[in-house]
């Protein structure tokens, strides 16, 4: 399982507010999560998505396309992957590992 941190930034919109675009992405990810393909966590600055690598690529493509469908003329998307293959990892596992070291 891989983890990706994604930031989608619509450029050239009528407003400096991006919350409507974020809401569209949240709805899209909620639908994808219901299909069982991924899990996700929305944060104040980005979105963390967890799933099989090929599924993440498909979902990220969908996230990138959403602002265009809402009228954005340009979209900048930043993606960071954590694709560990020596053992099964997850967001929860990573957080537990740090918490264990803090105790």
Automatic annotation (TrEMBL):
Domain of life the protein comes from: Bacteria
Task: Domain (Thiamine-binding protein): give its ranges.
Answer: 4-98
Write the signal peptide boundaries. Answer: none
User: Which terms in the GO cellular component ontology are assigned?
Assistant: cytosol
Q: Name one Pfam family in it.
A: Thiamine_BP
Family classification = Belongs to the UPF0045 family.
Which NCBIfam families does the record cross-reference, listed alphabetically?
MTH1187 family thiamine-binding protein
Name the UniProt record assigns to this protein: MTH1187 family thiamine-binding protein
Q: Which organism is it from?
A: Paenibacillus validus
Q: What is the lineage of its organism?
A: Bacteria, Bacillati, Bacillota, Bacilli, Bacillales
